[in-house]
Hints:
The structure holds 2 protein chains of 2 kinds. Chain A is mostly helical. Chain A has one domain (3-215). Chain A has helices at 3-15, 17-30, 37-53, 58-81, 87-106, 119-127, 131-153, 157-167, 169-174, 179-205, 216-231, 236-259, 272-294, and strands at 110-112, 207-209, 261-262, 265-266. In chain A, the strands form 2 sheets. Chain A has a two-stranded antiparallel ribbon with strand order 1-2. In chain A, strand 3 (261-262) and strand 4 form a beta hairpin. The radius of gyration of chain A is 19 Å and the shape is globular. The model of chain A has no long low-confidence stretch (mean pLDDT 94). Chain B has a single domain (2-97, 106-114, 149-252), classed as P-loop containing nucleotide triphosphate hydrolases (Rossmann fold), CATH 3.40.50. A 6-stranded mixed sheet of chain B has the order 6-7-8-3-9-10, sandwiched between helices. Chain B has a 4-stranded antiparallel sheet with strand order 2-1-4-5, with helices on one face.
Amino acid sequence: MTSYAFFGALEQGFAFGLMVLGVYLTFRVLDFPDLTVDGSLPLGAAVSAVAIDAGMHPALSLVLACGAGFLAGAVTGFLNTRLRILHLLASILTMIALYSVNLRIMGRPNLTLLGKPTLVDLFTTASGLPQYLSTPLLFGLVTAFAAVVLIWFLRTELGLALLATGDNPRMIRALGVNTGGTIILGLGLSNALTAMSGALVAQNQGGADVNMGVGTIVAGLASVILGETVFGRRSVAWAVLAAILGSLLYRLAIALALGLKLGSFSITPSDLNLITALLVVLALTAPRMKAKVFS
Amino acid sequence: MLRAEGIAKTFFKGGANEVRALNGVNLRLDEGEFVTVIGSNGAGKSTFLNAVAGVFPVDEGRVVIGDTDVTAWPEWRRAVLIGRVFQDPSQGTCPGATIEQNLALALKRGQPRGLGPGVRRRDRELFRERLSRLGLGLENRLRDPAGLLSGGQRQALTMLMSVLVRPRLLLLDEHTAALDPKTAEKILGLTARLVEELGLSTLMVTHNMRQAIGLGHRLVMFHRGEIVLDIRGEEKRNLRVENLLTRFAEARGEEFTSDRALLV
């Protein structure tokens, strides 16, 4: 792998790392398979791109993207807890609805940020580093900050209630927690992180595209599972860290796969969803296979 | 203390499996009264406990705890007044959370939860002191996940959690039924001690007649969604399994038959 591809993979791993934290929060903490992320990632990208296009500071546009993502997650939570729609279906409904919403926000299928200042430009200028180094550094800092906040939050009274909601809802209701509320909060936070991830990706690749969210959930799951398979999950803080490392590993694996050549055959970016899906199947079944082999 | 008036509940209404689980149950509990609840499978005793806890809305009737009518309150809101222990030991604790985190969750029962630290340093002393009174050595394992504990240890921890903040009403739903006899005996001893010490108004559901007779101030028996026996005072203190069966036969005009009620 070239060093260019390596730094590119780090950059992607950190930018999507926020999304992976979000998927960890729903999939592992809340035990809620949330497909909303396929819609909230481009939502964040769209909101951020439109805001920057309108002259807003790119850092401030991240806050806006977070807010929009939180709302999207809260809608899924509302559909599930108040209207009693199956969690998976509730998230698919929001995801589909977001496709239209994102088109409305941008007014067209994609929006470029050519000639507009992005966080990446501002940070590169300020740090004086070449862009192939400054971008992964910037995204690494943002993701590390988000991880610290998430770990802190999961140790607060409210955070513990959120953990318990996924772990033993009956018990935590008996202790006075409205589990519907904690589910909505958790989904909101998860999709806020995902939308922020989308905003970073958009600012990095110079624009938002309505289709950029396809396969987000699968990439997120692959990263979470990869992380916990390689690094384990002995505590919440550890699991959060493993999720980010999993995101890096996943993007590195993809970069490697894209560099593969077998005669005239080579893997193209359009093959990634297939490869990722296979990777998730493998990661989900590997523990059982391992148990079988060694028993 | 507790007033349950005319509680009725039918499950699967209108369907082929329609079950009239509670048929107008009336029960009044005095402050500090410890009532054991007995009955065969499907008699409605656990359903009644769940109706009081607010697990489902009742079709008819009122639930009043203290001076508060909680009939319209959802389950989580009633937690401010009620402590609960379930039959399945894994239901009472969070397996992924540590022992101290579980206790911290219980310490906030019924209180709003904010962004303060989940486990506070000063609370650890309280946790250690309470745990040490269980005599299980759990006070030295505050940071172990509750999932590592045995069923008996978990049930002891759940008992402790249910009374960590004094509840107005304690609901025990066959909380020793899933334990081996020796462990069950220990948990019962702990139950009797805690209820006595704190003077808690308590409803304890059990399958075991000897338990129901040996504990508490009063015994009620459920049959087909109704309370058919209510024995208290002197009569309760002198109660034996044989008289309980006789009393049941008198009350219902039929022999007591049960698939699971234990006569030991």
